[in-house]
Amino acid sequence: MPLLVGGLLELPLGVLAGEGRRRRLAVLGGGIIFVLTLLGAASAQSFIALLCAFVAFYPASGAFVGLTEADLMDRWPDRQAQVMARWELAGSTGAVAGPLLLTAVLASGGGWRDAYLILAGFAALAWLSLCLREPHAGGLTGADTAAEPGEEAEGRPWTARAREVIAALRDWETLRWLVLLQVADLLVDVFTGFLALYLVDVEHLRPAVAALAIAIRLGASLAGGGALIAVLERVGDLTVLRATAAAAALLYPGFLLVPGVGPKLAILAVLSAATTPWYPLLQARLYGSLPGRSPVAVTLSSAAALAGGLGPLAVGLAAQGFGLPWALAGLAVVPVVVLGVSASARPGATASDEE
């Protein structure tokens, strides 16, 4: 329900918010709802109340986080890959910090509600920092100068942006990265969702080892994100994408086939670091294929993510029909697809590519 209903509510955000002051209001309004959804989850006394909070969280996150990402892409059009790498590193830091926060809360005698209250406090601080930022022309805080591109775009009706969305769907350069984002996610978030189940039910490892594997995966992703920032200053984004896809094409089958806990965890760590660049580089390429049209990229990303939500269902159905080992073995095609599609991309497709 949160994925379907919340995703549908999030879908038109990019087109309706646009750029400039309107986007700033959308981000700040989304931030308020973001905080309220966390407070609502913490105080929910029934399943329906908790469900409503989770449904509202999707469009709130889309406005607060998704539109902020679009603003970052607008501010640095010539360094979109590098900026997205930093953005992804922040997300990886949160992925590692979240379990640590919950552990600390539980160890101190608190419960999951207390963890949500703490997260609401952090979100409120993030919202306040946006309120205090100085205006930035054409970006998140809006433009005060009529000559700025962001101000001109703000004056366009939302119907014009909606037509741009339809036109973008007919552009192969845009569709390439849009589809590849969802395909690549099968070996990132979807694989992570099935990892512990695979290790316990198929490899017959103890739950503690499976928990360790998840921690290793998150930590390796964080390390890979940090390395990506340095690498992109010297190597083009397409080169990084192709190299990591080629590495993953070898590492993933190795993870499934190698015997022993130690070797599996070691390969998992390298695999996790190798797949970390996929989302930021593909997302940057998507924005780069739509120069000056970040609202279109936001809307298309929301639509693709809604369709991509079928990925876990597809893997689950395959596991039910053929067994989890065969279902996960099918994901070995993902890095091959990423490598093949990125290999056919034009090096000059975005300004951020230095090849």
Describe the protein.
This protein is mainly alpha-helical and 355 residues long. The chain has two domains: 2-155, no CATH class; 167-343, Growth Hormone, Chain: A. Helices cover 79% and strands 0% of the residues. It contains 17 helices and no strands. Helix 1 (2-10) crosses helix 4 (47-75). The chain is globular. The protein starts with a helix and ends in a 12-residue tail after the last helix. Mean pLDDT is 86; it is low at 137-151 and 349-355.
End-to-end gap? 43 Å
What's the SSE pattern? HHHHHHHHHHHHHHHHH
Rg calc: 21 Å
- Report the helical percentage: over 70%
Please indicate the percent range of residues in DSSP E strands (runs of 2 or more): under 5%
* Structural shape: globular
Largest sheet: none
The CATH topology of the largest domain turns out to be Growth Hormone, Chain: A
Uncertain residue ranges = 137-151, 349-355
- Give the structural class: mainly alpha
Q: In the CATH hierarchy, what is the class of the largest domain? A: Mainly Alpha
Count of DSSP-assigned helices: 17
Name the CATH superfamily classification of the largest domain.
MFS general substrate transporter like domains
The assigned CATH architecture of the largest domain is: Up-down Bundle
Give the overall pLDDT as a whole number.
86
Total number of beta strands: 0
Please indicate the count of domains: 2
In short:
This protein has 355 residues and is mostly helical. Helix content is 79%, strand content 0%.
